[in-house]
Amino acid sequence: MDTSVAIQVLPMMEDEEKLVAAVDKAIEYIQSTGVDYQVGAFETTIEGNYDQLMDIVKNITKITADAGAPQVMSYVKINYKPEGQVLGIHEKTDKYQH
């Protein structure tokens, strides 16, 4: 695993129920890809191969829009280590889980 990505999609919608449904579609898409992921309160972290994760990043904003959002803001953080492995989700967060 050479890459870790944190992605936050913000559907620009006033109806909170529809907003949550659009975000749920984005998370369902991430689940369908088979990558390791962790959903957080503000963003979802995904781990894996750089090219696969970049495809997910490319598609997720469109998937959120297709779920009914007339406009979507996406914020992405990428940790890429071409030689070796990045620290994984569990290495970073397990000691803080309750």
UniProtKB/TrEMBL annotation:
GO CC annotations, alphabetized: cytosol
Segments forming domain Thiamine-binding protein: 5-97
Any one Pfam family match given in the protein's UniProt record, by short name: Thiamine_BP
Family membership: Belongs to the UPF0045 family.
UniProt-listed PANTHER family: UPF0045 PROTEIN ECM15
Protein name: Thiamine-binding protein
Lineage: Bacteria, Bacillati, Bacillota, Bacilli, Lactobacillales
